[in-house]
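Form 12-C: Joint structure prediction
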Amino acid sequence: MVEGYECEIKDMSLHEFGRKELDIAQVEMPGLMALRDEFKDAPPLKGAKISGSLHMTIQTAALIETCHSLGAELRWCSCNIYSTQDHAAAAIAKAQTAAVFAWKNESLEEYWECTLKMLTWPDCDGPDILIDDGGDATLLMHEGEKYELEFEKNGTLPDPQSTNNREMQQVLRIIRRELENGNTKKWGKMLNNLKGVSEETTTGVARLDQMSLKGELRLKCINVNDCVTKQKFDNVYGCRHSLPDGLMRATDVMIAGKQVVICGFGDVGKGCAQAMKAQGSRVVVVEVDPICALQAAMEGYEVKRLESILTTGDIFITATGNKGIIMAHHMAQMKNNAIVGNIGHFDNEIDMDGLDNYPGIKPMNVKEQVDRYEFPDGHGIIVLAQGRLLNLGCATGHPSFVMSCSFTNQVLAQIELWKEKDSDEKYQRGKVYVLPKHLDEKVARLHLASLNAELTELSTEQADYICVPQAGPFKKDAYRY
Ligand SMILES: NC(=O)c1ccc[n+]([C@@H]2O[C@H](COP(=O)([O-])OP(=O)(O)OC[C@H]3O[C@@H](n4cnc5c(N)ncnc54)[C@H](O)[C@@H]3O)[C@@H](O)[C@H]2O)c1
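Section 2 - Result
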């Protein structure tokens, strides 16, 4: 170890395994590798301190090392307590391409301590740019500043017991401790110093949008989720791959013939439904949006209310990004050994608190990330990853190729934020932006050759006829793909 290098991981001896998988992954990540090549002579992230809160997997290791090769220094943690691949964290720690604070099966307390360490840079106010997935790091900084201002006004400290939300209890505990230790300007300074954040997922973007609407957002933000080459690829094809992967690794249940209930038919739900249909299951969709409900029906899925299929469903998957979707009283009515899992970002889609506190409930751990809950009448249900996203808890998340699309957008967003660090013209604090379409098309283009896809070129006459530039962008911003 080089002196001064920090990391907290499970097992450094896994580094060789991690490196082997990382080497293989890179071949499947042509977008990231093309950026390394394109910018090798003039690294565009030179001097940037990047903090990242994003599942510490092999694919993320390739993202980290791309940013590193483009000149950045990095600190990293995971954005989920179950999603770290310990060999990926070890490979990064061994190479020291980021200071990494992550391991599989963190407690909530450890998770938030890792988030704090990822944000806390030695000898300066904090990171220059942030990569966030789900908005937890952004939340910690903003809550921190809010309580610093309160403390300055009247000496009030946050009370972790003022909320029942176990995550918020940890957030408040950390903010309180920093204030008690005399760090009374930490978060405000950090927000002032930060040149921006690029956010990875639907739920994180929803949080940013809400903060922006309320006038509470203090950062320049790039919404990476809504890049077409992220949203319509990672969310759809990634989940199409990793939902069955998670289900099979966790339970090895035969999916064919089963009734699979998908709650939410957005991008993630569409990928999930396709995968389950391809396995030969009978898919039922639960939706609130009439357009998505009609889409589901036109794809040949049944569309029902959850209440109508509680007693017949074999597998229930939540993919809404909303809260309170499957409640304890729903689970009590399910058939014996029905499987319940979530693939949305947070663990509040399934009422785990209600289940844990159900009168007479008997939880039994089957294996890591698989628990059977037996109700007093003797029937039980199987819950995956304690209601946290099962594709990362029970499996290894999305495969490299699709993550290359998402992460190429992440790197482009980071380059944009760093390039515009001294100007408020293109990106303003408090607002959320998407990358321009020509970059989205560039990301797709970088992935075609490795699939032997031949792209047809427009003639000038054809380009004029449909009123688009010959080299793109080929669609208006509002086009839905
Ligand atoms: N696990 C992963 O790898 C992964 C990958 C990408 C996104 N995500 C997460 O998955 C979630 C869904 O993302 P998305 O991009 O599909 O979002 P989306 O907005 O496209 O889809 C969500 C759908 O859920 C529906 N919905 C909302 N409330 C509902 C309710 N009460 N009952 C039924 N349906 C309801 C909405 O109408 C919408 O169609 C988000 O939390 C996102 O962050 C997870």
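Section 3 - Comments
Residues 201-203, 234-235, 238-239, 263-269, 286-289, 292, 319-322, 325, 343-345, 389, 391, 398 surround nicotinamide-adenine-dinucleotide (CB under 6 Å). DSSP finds 20 helices and 15 strands in the chain.
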